[in-house]
Amino acid sequence: PRESDERPLQDGDILKIDIVVFVDGFHGDCCGTFLVGEVDDEIKRLAEVTRTCLYEAIDICGPGVQIYHIGRKIHEIADKEKFGVVAEFCGHAVGRKLHRSPQIIHVRNSRPGLMVPGMTFTIEPILTEGSTKTELWPDGWAVATVDKKRSSQIEETILITEDGVEILTRH
C-alpha cells in the first residue's frame, strides 16, 4: 500500500477525488475537493474561490476564444483573493484518449490556440494557500506543495458548442 493510503481521514482534512469515466468510446474527467468534518473558514474560502475560478473560466469559453484566456481568468481571481495557482498541472483535451493536446494552462500565459466547436477539454485549477511548487511523495502517487500548505482543486470536462459551452460532467 501507498503511504497516503494508510492514514485515516481526520476532521479538517481536504480530500480530492478525481474520476475518469469511459462511455461509448469516449472519456470524461472530473474532480472535486471535499472538506472532511469540521474545517476552518479559510479552507472553506479556498475551496469556494477554486470553484469560482473554474466556473468563471468556463463562462468565458466559446467558439473563437483564445485558450489562454482561461489561465488569465483563473490567475486574476486567485491573485485578487491572495491564493497561488499551481502551474505544474494543467487541463487537457479529452476524447477517445484521456490526455490529448491542447494543454489548458491555468496561469497567465500567451500560448496560442483557438476554441472551436466540437472541442472537448478539462479545466482543473489547483489553488493553494502557500507555495505553488509541488513535490511527489515517496509513494509515487500523492503530490503536495513543497511547504505542505493546503490546496484545493476542482475539474469539469466541457464541450465548445456552436454558440457557447456545455459542461459535460457537472457535479
Low-confidence stretches: none
The total count of helices amounts to: 2
Work out the helicity level. 10-25%
Strand content: 25-35%
Mean pLDDT: 93
SSE class: alpha+beta
Number of strands: 12
Instruction: Report the order of strands and helices.
Output: EEHHEEEEEEEEEE
Q: Mind describing the biggest β-sheet?
A: 3 strands, antiparallel
SSE diagram, text form:
Layout: E1 14-23, E2 26-35, H1 41-59, H2 68-80, E3 84-85, E4 91-93, E5 100-104, E6 120-123, E7 126-128, E8 134-136, E9 143-145, E10 151-153, E11 156-161, E12 164-167
Antiparallel strand pairs: 1-2, 3-7, 4-5, 6-11, 7-10, 8-9, 11-12
Which keywords apply here?
171 residues; alpha+beta; three-stranded antiparallel β-sheet; 33% strand; globular
Could you walk me through the main structural features you see in this protein, from its secondary elements to its overall organization?
By secondary structure, the protein is α+β, with helices and mostly antiparallel strands. 19% of the residues lie in helices and 33% in strands. The protein contains 2 helices and 12 strands, in the order ββααββββββββββ. The strands form 5 sheets. Strands 3-7-10 form a 3-stranded antiparallel β-sheet, with helices on one face. A hairpin with a 6-residue loop joins strand 4 (91-93) and strand 5. The two termini are 30 Å apart. 29% of the residues are buried.
